[in-house]
Amino acid sequence: MLSLLAPSACVLVGCIFVSSAEVFSLSDQYLPLWNETPGQFSDYSVENGKYIIDPWVYPKRMGMYKILLNKTANYFEKFAPDNEQNFLWGLPLQHGWQYKTGRLVDPTQTTDCGYESGDRLCISVDSWWADMNYFLCALPFLAAVDSGIMGISSDQVLLLPPSKDQTKFCLNVSSCQSSFPSTMRKWNALYKHLQSPSSSFEDLLKYLWEAHVSSLKDGYKIFEDRLEYYSKPEAGFGKDWCVVLDYLAAASFPTIFSTVSEFQQALPPRVLVDGDKAPFISDFTDLQNIVLLGLNLLHKVDSSTEFWEVTINVVCMECVLFVPSALAGICEERSPRKETADFNGLGKQSSIVMARIIR
Ligand SMILES: *[C@@H]1O[C@H](CO)[C@@H](O)[C@H](O)[C@H]1NC(C)=O
Ligand SMILES: *[C@@H]1O[C@H](CO)[C@@H](O)[C@H](O)[C@H]1NC(C)=O
């Protein structure tokens, strides 16, 4: 049992992130169809003086990210050349992963939306992943338009509604602001500070994560029932993922190209089906199996008090075995105490250490 649980500590302390960073390359491996993706507003059609974007077509949605990355590039020049330190890369990378792993298809299978044999580029409104991503695409994009950094005015862009549930999605700057005021303000705060020459990378990353978590919370409330369309393991993974993001946020995980693309190699390469049980999924790599198990464990730890005692010991043992003495020190200091709150503290502290290791 111990040897099975043991690697999960890696998720907490970030063993998988420690290895050297991936070479920065905009290959299709990480960003499918990136080269065919629209990269400027003039690539979209115009009606009544507004750019019309259909976010339910994969390259069109991806194009919003491409424009966002392009328009924010100059604010990241002071950190590194070639947009390499732009932490907005995490958003298109995750969307690319969703597309590549089949997570944007119609999970109810009542349409051919997203399927290889049907309309591959279609993004299904019934996909939980696609709906969650909408809040991490439309909102950051429209807030950027509103902040002025995109070079067009707030009323100059309109997103097309999906085929159903239209009222759950905001389509332009003003409707997003009235439906999700708090989240839009947080994205705006990020862009405001981005334009300030005195902002540090760490400060900006904090604004990014505040907005990111707020977007996810908005989306989660609205679309939780979509998880019912999935197998138990996939629905569980979706929920685990949201918990993990809280930890990544607490750690200010730098969502730049190299760290996110490396992290993705550890994520499930296809939608999970009934019977998939980490760490025994035969077509997954060891790393993918271990991380899936670890994400699940992290969620259990996050939500349960009973599990605490077993886990803390396993985790700390792993700290001692695998990671530098600094981490072991934290564990020794913390482990005698029993409050769950303390364990959460440890998890968050470990994540913070993790973030430091990466830098
Ligand atoms: C942004 O896009 C424009 C137009 O496609 C291009 O000329 C420019 O080099 C791009 N800038 C960056 C930093 O990618
Ligand atoms: C934004 O969309 C709403 C409906 O979703 C519409 O009533 C409003 O006129 C639009 N505003 C602009 C500036 O286009």
From TrEMBL:
A Pfam family annotated for this UniProt entry: Leg1
GO cellular component: extracellular space
Signal sequence interval, chain numbering: 1-21
The organism of origin for this protein: Bison bison bison (North American plains bison)
Name of the protein in its database record: UPF0762 protein C6orf58 homolog
Keywords: Signal
Highest taxon of the lineage: Eukaryota
Tagged with keyword Signal: yes
